[in-house]
Amino acid sequence: MSPSLRARLGSGLLGLALLVPIAAAAPASAAAADFPAGFTGYHTYAEMSADLSAVAARYPAIARKIAIGKSYQGRTIWAVKISDNVATDEPEAEVLFDGGTHGDEHMGLEMTLKIMHWLVDGYGTVSRITNIVNSREIWIIPSVNPDGAAYDISGGRFHLWRKNRQPNAGTTAIGTDVNRNFGYRWGGGGRTSTNPAAITYQGPFAFSTPEARSVRDFLAGRVVNGRQQIRMAITFHEYGRLVMWPYGYTTTDIPADMTVDDYKGLVAIGTKMAASNGYRAQQASDLYGTSGTTRDFEYGVYRIFSYTFELSVKDYPDDALIASETGRNKEAVLYLMERAGCPLGILGSAYRIARCGAFDDDFEVSRGWRVNMAGTDTATAGAWQRGDPAPTTTAAGRKQPDSVTSGRYGFATGLAAGTSPAANDLDGGRTSTTSPTIALTASAGQKLQFRWSFAHDRTASAVDEFRVEVLEGAIATAVFVSRGGAWERSASWNLASIDMGRWAAKAIRLRFSATDGGGSGIVEAVFDDVRVTQPQ
Q1: How many CB atoms lie within 10 A of CB 61?
Q2: How far apart are CA 407 and CA 258, in angstroms?
C-alpha cells in the first residue's frame, strides 16, 4: 500500500517505528464482526462469501465459485471464475484480479466484487462485456487475507491491521505481510522487514504463509501444457491512486530479468489505464522499494503483465466513496481484459504481426519445451539447455555467441564455455528439444520465425547439422536445415522465416535438433525468439 500514517512513522526504522499492536491469534469464530459506523457498506467475509455464492447460483453458465486454499485461521480463500463456458478449460487468454492482500485495505475487496458484478450483470446485455466474457477466462480472488481483514474490524473498530494472523515462533508478535512473502526476490530489501513485529515483516522464509502459498499454487495450476494461461493481472491495494508495473525490487527500469519489449508494453498499458482513471502511472519502485510482492512474483516467474492499483485518495475511505472509487476503474479493467489476448500488440502493427500469432516464446521463462522428448537422442555432451550462453572462441573465430537476441535466455548446445572451446560443445550425436502443442489458426500467411546460429570448425562435414521440423502427430517434416562442411564457420545470429500454410488450422509441435556427426571437432548451435506470426 501507499505510505499511510502508520507507515510514515519512519520508513527506515522498521524494527521500532513500524511496530504493530501485539495480540494473541484468535480462532476465526472469535474474530467475526461488522464494520464500524460509516463503513457498514463494506463487505465482511461472510457477506462476501454469500455474494459469491449468490452470483454462482444465479449465473451458473458463466460463473463458478472455487476454493483455492485456507487461511491460517481456517477461512476458505475463494476464487470466482467467469467465462462463457465456465465449466470448460478453454484455450483463451486469462486474466486475474485479486484484493484484500493487506487486512486493512478493504477497498480492494470491494473493487474485485464490483468487477465480478460488471461482468455477470452485463453479460448478454452489454456487448463489450459479452465479448470479453466470451473470449476470456477471468479469475477473481476477492480476499487473499481474510483473517487480517476480519481482525481489522473485530470489536466494531479498526485495528490498522495489515498482516495475516499467523503467530511468529519465538516471539509474541503476530502476523506476516503477505505481500512481502512471495518467492520472487524474497528478502531483497526495500520497505521489507526481518522484524516479526513490523507491519512489513517478510516471514521466516518465502511462502511461509498459507495465504501466499494458496495464490502460488493457484498460479501454478494455471500452467497448462507447460505455459501460463494468465496473461494479465491486477492486485488491488489502498491507497494513493497509482497504477504500478514491475519491478518493486529494483529501481532499474529494464533489469536483466525483463526484456525491452516487455518494459515498453508494461509502460504503455499502465499509462493507458492511468489515463482512464486519473491515477499516476509509475514503476513500483518509484514509490518505494519492495521485495516478495505478488506483482513481482507474477511477472518474474510467469511473465504475467501484472499491475498494482493503489485505490482511493485516503486510507480507510468511508463507504460513501465505494461507488466512486471503484467506478473510476471500470474502463481500465475492461481495457486490461481486452488487451490480454496479446499485451505486446499495444506497441503497434509490427508487434501485432510478430508477437500476437499462434505462438510466441522468447525463452525468458520456462514454457513447456522438452529436451529429448522421444528418448532417442544420442549426444554424449552439449545437449540443449535453456539459459544464458557463455561465449566460446577459437583462433578462427567465435563458435558460441555471448548473448541471445532478446533478454537473457535462449537454447544452446551446452551453455558453459568450459576450459576450452571444445569443452562443452555438442558431441557424440543428436540433441533435440520439442515445443508444447501449437494450435495454428485457419488463416493463410502464418510464418514460423526464429533466430539461430550454427557454428563449427574445419573438421565438420555435411553430417553435422542444425534442423527444424514440424511435428503433426507421428509425421515429422523438416522445414529448415543448415549443414556443416570442411570450413570454419563462426557464430552469427540469423533470422529464419518459413511459411506455415500447409499446417493452417492444425495442432503441431516444433522440434529443434542439432547433430555432431562424429570426430573431435567443434559444433555449436543456439536459437531464440521462436514465433508463429499473424498473417499480415
Answers
A1: 12
A2: 7
Model pLDDT for residues 96-149, shown as the tens digit of each residue: 999 999 999 999 999 999 999 999 999 999 999 999 999 999 999 999 999 999
Are 390 and 462 found together in one domain? yes
C-alpha span between 496 and 449 (Å, rounded): 5
Please, what is the Cα angle at 450 between 449 and 455, to 5 degrees?
140
d(CA 520, CA 377): 19
What pLDDT score was predicted for residue 395? 83
- Which residues are bridge partners to 81 per DSSP? 64, 139
Cell digits for 518? 562424429
The answer as to whether 269 is a domain residue is yes
Identify the three-state secondary structure at position 122: helix
Does 321 share its domain with 460?
Answer: no
Q: How far apart are CA 243 and CA 122, in angstroms?
A: 25
**In this structure, are residues 162 and 101 in contact, taking their beta carbons and an 8 Å threshold?**
no
Q: Which of 321, 356, 391 is the last residue of a domain?
A: 356
Q: Which of 199, 152, 208 is nearest to 173 (CA)?
A: 199
Q: Residue 285 pLDDT more than 70?
A: yes
pLDDT in tens, 451-486: 999 999 999 999 999 999 999 999 999 999 999 999
Q: Taking 70 as the threshold, does the pLDDT of residue 417 lie above it?
A: yes
Give residues with Cβ within 8 angstroms of 3, minimum separation 6.
Answer: 11, 240, 288
Which residues form the domain of 331? 7-356
Q: How many residues does the chain have?
A: 536
The answer on 119 and 96 residing in a single domain is yes
The catalytic residue positions are 310
- Examine the domain organization and report whether 320 and 374 are in the same domain: no
**CATH classification of the domain holding 480:** 2.60.120.200
pLDDT at 28: 42
Q: Do residues 323 and 373 share a domain?
A: no
Residue 75 identity (one-letter amino acid): R
User: Tell me: the pLDDT tens digits for 429-452?
Assistant: 999 999 999 999 999 999 999 999
Q: Which percentage of the chain shows pLDDT scores above 70?
A: 94
- Give the three-class secondary structure for 352: helix
d(CA 196, CA 269): 37
